[in-house]
Structure formats: C-alpha cells, structure tokens
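Milestone M4 deliverable, item 7.
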Amino acid sequence: MGFTAASGSIYPSVILPLYFASIAWTLHYDTIYAHQDKQDDLIAGVKSTALLLGNNTKLWLRAFNIGMISHLLTVGLVVDQTWPYYLGLTTVAYHLYRQVETVDLNNPQSCWQTFRSNRLTGLILLSSILIGNLFK
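Output delivered:
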C-alpha cells in the first residue's frame, strides 16, 4: 500500500509480490511465536499453525522463507533495484535460515528469542531498500 501511495499508481507486478512476501514472513514469525504456547492452545482448542504443522514446522518455515525471498527478489527485479538491495536480501535469507536451524520449537524461551530476532529481519530489509535506492 505504501508503494502505491508513494507512486500514485497501482503496479500489480510490484504490489502482489510484496503482499505475498509479507504473508510468507508473517507465517514464518507467527508460527514460531505460536510454538511458545502450543500446549495451552491444545487445551483451549485454539487452532494455531504450531499445532497444524506439528513435526513438519521447520519444513514449512523453510517454504515460507523461500516464498518470502523469491517474492522480494521479484520485486527487486521489477523496480530495478541495485546491488545493496540484493546483498541485504541475501543477509535476510541467511538470518531466516539461521532462525529455522537454531530455534528449539519445544522451548518457549528459544521461540521467544527467535521471534524477537525478526526485528533485525525488518531492519535489514528496510536498510537494504533504502541503501539500494540511494544507488539508483
């Protein structure tokens, strides 16, 4: 929505991949967050992604991350981004990879720390967009 407001035009080739990348990232961090209290969800009958994905969660987290990065790559190509954007995207991809590899989905503290580290994901992504635009 911000891109559309700033440009004054609707570009589906930009806004749709951004939208899907946002969904993928939300599924990533929200699923990790949901693993903190999956036992409570089970008792309360809440249908969370943690319960839905169960033992396959890390596989799904990887799929969400691939979806996010591929959609952000698409946006970068469409808007003719510069090399700092792609360097930042590579850093984000590695950060998300490390999250999946190191999180203990049965340890609420590990889930919380991993969930919180997504602030860094957003900061890296924002920085790469801004710096990439400076190189245009």
